[in-house]
Write a structure and sequence with these properties.
This is Isocitrate lyase/phosphoenolpyruvate mutase family protein. It is built from 10 helices and 8 strands. The protein has about 260 residues and is of the alpha/beta class. The chain has a single domain, classed as TIM Barrel.
């Protein structure tokens, strides 16, 4: 894979219902290289929460678009694998600006992207469905103009913001019609919700998982196309680091991970 277009095509091909792409989210060059070195890893994805916290700012576009693009480039340049970038809301209040910024994201080498349909973290803080669909369409137009079939993982936050399942499905199908490749639906906490989304969507489903989520093997059996973990890998790393610090400062045994070669 020598071009961004090649990487985007490769990334798209990995989204297979029943044989989902598993992406362990990364946030800088060293985490990207570490995960990419694992046999079987074929693509990476960033997590905006992790990148923001690593920069000392809150999630939710705490970084400027220039800072977000620079952070994405660090990860993309660190590896040869396709990288999907969590691009939050597109760093613009309108669809036209989203299109401009997605063009810039493609220029730094992104093969895929997440695009959210919420503008805040509170209940009901969602873009109007027509506005949200226009933002997805603007991202697809930017990709077409660049000649790079970037994989748009369109995030649906309706359930996570206290909305109804039917509204989430309506939004997902509108985004697919607008040019999204995959629907990233938050709030699918049970097998029944996952199955319902797969049955009702006109395309592929992406989910986020954690310790209490539907097991990975079961998600595959249900027909999910992609599984990611958001900021949870950062929590995993920080937990191990904190545990090691506690052992070392208490003059305990050296954790064997101190010998990890990177």
């Amino acid at each position: 894979m020598t071009t961004t277009a090649d990487k985007a095509e490769a990334l798209r091909s990995l989204h297979v219902p029943g044989d989902p792409l598993i992406v362990v989210n990364v946030w800088d060059a060293i985490t990207a290289r570490t995960v990419a070195a694992v046999p079987g890893v074929r693509a990476l994805a960033t997590a905006s929460h992790s990148i923001s916290f690593a920069h000392g700012v809150p999630d939710g576009e705490g970084l400027s678009v220039d800072e977000a693009l620079a952070a994405a480039k660090v990860v993309i340049d660190a590896v040869d694998l396709p990288v999907s970038v969590d691009f939050e809301r597109g760093y613009s209040p309108d669809a036209a600006g989203v299109g401009v910024n997605v063009g810039r994201l493609i220029e730094v080498g992104a093969a895929g992207m997440n695009l959210e349909d919420s503008y805040g973290t509170g209940a009901g803080e969602l873009f109007d469905i027509d506005d949200a669909a226009e933002r997805v369409a603007a991202a697809r137009t930017a990709a077409d103009t660049a000649g790079v079939p970037i994989v748009i993982n369109a995030r649906v936050d309706a359930l996570a913001r206290g909305g109804e399942f039917d509204d989430a499905i309506l939004r997902g199908n509108r985004y697919l019609a607008a040019g999204a490749d995959v629907i990233f639906m938050l709030g699918l906490a049970t097998e029944e919700l996952v199955q319902g989304a797969i049955d009702a969507l006109d395309g592929r489903l992406s989910v986020i998982s954690g310790p209490t989520s539907v097991p990975l093997k079961r998600l595959a059996e249900l027909g999910v196309s992609r599984v990611s973990f958001g900021p949870r890998p950062l929590g995993l790393v920080l937990s191990h680091l904190q545990d090691a610090a506690a052992v070392l400062t208490s003059r305990g045994d050296y954790p064997p991970e101190l010998g990890f070669s990177y």
